[in-house]
Write a structure and sequence with these properties.
With 431 residues, this protein is an all-alpha fold. Helix content is 77%, strand content 1%. The longest helix is centred in the middle third of the chain and has 33 residues, at 248-280. It is globular and about 75 Å long.
Length: 431
């Protein structure tokens, strides 16, 4: 890494430290933690776009699937719905649904002509009604149990850290299903397909209460670090905080965020190490050759579609891992917060600004763009307050003050335009 790149990372570090020194260390550490997760997300998208040129605009769906993992793995099972057989009937219905799809695939492979079309149609229609006949009553039993607090199957009660690789596996499985059908499409069609599928994933999470309570949200997801109230109740911790002249409430919040930062840093370092090894390996050179000229790579005997599927799954798995980390940090799953602006567009801005095709550029973009995303709103309010300070009260002043809320979007667009104009390959270009 050359001096210029070190200075860029030093600038981002100085911004975060400056926030801590001039504002609040809680805010600075919050920015650091989400910056680490954003860097991981940017790494996943960079694998798909920077390595292979795959235009995935369904990032939100893979992040949401990853966020589902802590609910399924770490929360306690709702034993009442399992003993009432509602859960088992629901799982049986899902197995029936999988079996119907498998029969339709088998009919497609074994039969021919008009017989094949008729068999597939009959199998799917009959299977759909059979599935709904079993599934709907079972879902009603599960969702009717204490809807204010439960109304879902619950999880396995395992340590929440196990949910992180599970989140990656869920996203990887979805990517395999999507890739098998969509990677043969043209790049713009692939983008439309991934966007649509991401919306389908989110719609399922919002509407199927038996899975993760839908829009009623899942709260109280276990954490891999101590709770602040437990630290504040510990005499040893209180004495330790007093030694630094800090009150226990502030000290406990800072310590918890530092522990999260340590966990996220370990994951990011492991991913950047693996990503750099992969990029510099023969596999990485082959992926870039496919990206630059698919026709030439195919003429050299490379299976382009298979390699695209491979990197699509890897990048999506990283996004799923980041999604599980976000839910663990928040201790809750809130499907209503997933939107394309935050979990697709912003991640793409990070990759483009940082430098697509360069892992360190993706990390830099993740930290820088997240810092701006958080800080631009208060900066915009202060700026608009300064501009309107001498204005008389009225519609114009009110309109300008209300417009400060849009400073985030304006800033993201401005940063993107400036980088594309003066450094079109990003702040840290691909070597």
């Amino acid at each position: 890494m050359n001096l210029r790149n070190l200075l860029l990372f030093g600038l981002v570090a100085a911004l975060i430290v400056g926030e801590g020194m001039t504002g609040s260390w809680n805010t600075a550490l919050g920015i650091l933690n989400m910056g680490l997760i954003s860097a991981i997300l940017a790494l996943g998208v960079n694998m798909q776009w920077g390595y292979a040129g795959l235009f995935n605009v369904g990032i939100m769906g893979f992040v949401a699937l990853g966020g589902l993992a802590p609910v399924l793995v770490a929360t306690q099972p709702v034993t009442e719905v399992w003993t009432a057989d509602g859960a088992f009937r629901l799982l049986f219905a899902l197995a029936v649904g999988v079996g119907v799809v498998a029969l339709a695939i088998l009919a497609n492979r074994r039969l021919a002509g008009g017989t094949r079309a008729a068999a597939i149609l009959v199998t799917l229609i009959a299977g759909f009604f059979l599935f709904r006949a079993i599934f709907d009553p079972a879902a009603e039993v599960v969702e009717a149990f204490q809807p204010a607090t439960h109304s879902n199957l619950g999880g396995l009660g395992l340590p929440v850290l196990l949910a992180w690789p599970v989140g990656a596996l869920l996203a990887a499985g979805a990517a395999w299903l999507i890739g098998k059908t969509a990677l043969g499409l043209r790049s713009d069609y692939l983008a439309i397909a991934t966007l649509g599928i991401a919306e389908i994933i989110l719609a399922v999470m919002k509407n199927e209460d038996w899975l993760a309570r839908g829009v009623k949200n899942v709260i109280g997801i276990p954490r891999p670090v101590p709770y602040e109230v437990d630290l504040q109740a510990s005499p040893g911790f209180v004495d330790w905080a007093a030694g630094f002249g800090a009150d226990p409430v502030t000290a406990s919040t800072v310590v918890v965020k530092l522990l999260y930062a340590a966990l996220f840093t370990v994951v990011l370092l492991a991913l950047i190490w693996a990503s750099e090894l992969a990029l510099k390996s023969p596999w990485g050179r082959m992926m870039r050759a496919i990206r630059d000229n698919e026709t030439a790579a195919e003429a050299m005997g490379k299976n382009v579609t298979r390699r695209h599927l491979q990197v699509f799954i890897l990048g999506s798995a990283v996004c799923g891992l980041a999604g599980a980390m976000i839910v663990t940090l928040d201790s809750q799953l809130t499907p209503g917060t997933y939107n394309p602006l935050r979990f697709t567009f912003l991640i793409w801005v990070m990759v483009i600004v940082g430098g697509s095709g360069n892992n360190w550029g993706a990390i830099l973009g993740g930290f820088l763009i997240w810092f701006l995303w958080i800080k631009v709103e208060p900066w915009g309010n202060a700026l608009m307050g300064l501009i309107t300070a001498g204005m008389a009260d009225g519609a114009l002043k009110t309109h300008l003050q209300d417009s400060a809320a849009h400073m985030r979007l304006l800033t993201m667009g401005l940063v993107l335009l400036l980088v594309l104009r003066f450094s079109p390959r990003g702040l840290i270009p691909e070597r």
